Amino acid sequence: MSAERAGVLFNQRGGTGHRVTVALISAFLMAIVFVIDTFTEIEGAIAVLYVMALLLGSEILTRTGLLLTSIVCIFLTVLSYFLTHGPDPDLQTFIRLAVALAALAITMALLLRNDAFRAELIERNAEIRESEARYRSIFDGARVALWERDYSRLHAYLLELKAAGVTDLEDHARRHPEIIDHCIGLLRTVAANEAARELVGTSADSGSRESMADFIASGDKTFLHLMNAMFTGQAYFEGKGRITTDSGEIRQVLLSISFPEDTAAFNRVVVGMVDITQREMTEAALIEARAEFAKASKAATIGALSASLAHELNQPLGAIAVNAQTLLRWLDRDPPDLSAIRRSAERIIRDGQRASDIIHNTRNLLTQQESKAEWIDLSTLIDETRSLVEHDLKRDGIAVTVRPGEGVPQVKSVRVEIQQVMINLMTNAIQAINGAKCPVREIIVEIEPADGMVGVSVRDSGPGISPEGMEKLFTPFYTTKAQGLGMGLSICRSTLESRGGKLDGFNHPDGGAVFKMTLPIEDPHL
Ligand code: ADP
Predict the structure, then answer these.
(1) CATH number assigned to the domain covering 299-369
(2) Cis amide bond preceding 439, omega within 30
(3) Does 296 score more than 90 pLDDT?
(4) How far apart are CA 502 and CA 153, in angstroms?
């Protein structure tokens, strides 16, 4: 018989030798039964004995083989019946034949059903094996440290505690701290993957250390929380914990466990751990760096504010000193010029008020309070600014021309801030004209609408901005003046920007510098 045909009739169970032996014995049995049934006088349903051959053959036959063998047995039974009883059978022998055929048919049906069951069982087994293999390969290959642990004894112990009336496990553990070690002792490691061995060392999979307690870093409360999660019947547990590796190193881990619903499955609970030591260290360093940075930026803010205050107060304090000297001179006159004294005193009050406003505004900045916004008529504000620097203008013989522009709307902003910017720009212009000893001594202030905003430019007849200045004008502490602080323009620009405006500096084609501030009609931040 060709191997292919044999494959149709015989299954693959056992070795070839076994199959041949069983096939021969079955055939021999069938032959014996046929001989006894045909050539002896024994009365009885001898053919029923073919069932033995069928049962034996089922061990090595496929469904087709079984079907064929059953047909052969039925054929032999009928053949022997005709050979023995000729064409005139009596009722008794016919009933015996029917019994034998029925026994053979029933046996065949049962064997075929059994074979179907067996095939299904084999298929299921193969599926289970395949799923187990897949699970194994995921378990072994995962880059997360995984353990299979037997939690059944711990689970049973926690159920016992519950039955004994414990309702709050954490409280119970506080009163009986020894139960934690006892519970740890109830755990058993079934298996661990490669990542687990990399994390902990070789003791990961065998639990070769004396107890799991060696593995959990001392003082770590995570295990108690884990027990509590089991105790309260939660489906999973996730927490940060600390473990001790084989080399004695302490590592921070993120632990996660899913608890099975079925009590019987507590003997194979998968525990996952991710090493977060590096992440935690980075986070701690980041928090520290942030605190350092906050300290440093506070110091920088205080430094910048002091510089800004010193710069802003310089002008009103200087003006107060000058007006006080003037006042003294008027007083020294004989008779004293009372109306001139009054004017000087009023200027002192005005400049004192400005200094106070500056301090108030700075304090608002520090306490993050919103400054008061109001509608400002820029041409009035410029007139006021001119009178504030009037003393310097007169002293240096500088004329100021204001070109108010047509249809310029009022702007809503913080008056003291805008005035401060104007004073800075005018003072810079005066110093530029003075420094260069220019023959033409003039400042032109122009106000004009600009794209839904309002622009104010201050042009002087000085030497203009140097190429180096062009790059660094707005850089804090950039100054070309012996007494300068280099803070004015940078403060002006950041003030205007924080109010939705901007400040630019450039040289006029006809000479001199131009500083142009642009303001929104209504400050979006106020
Ligand atoms: P400070 O006046 O204390 O020097 P500023 O920030 O107000 O600080 O100015 C920075 C620098 O910008 C000045 O030192 C000067 O070199 C240049 N600068 C400012 N205004 C003018 C101007 N109108 N013409 C030419 N250069 C100017």
Answers:
(1) 1.10.287
(2) no
(3) no
(4) 74
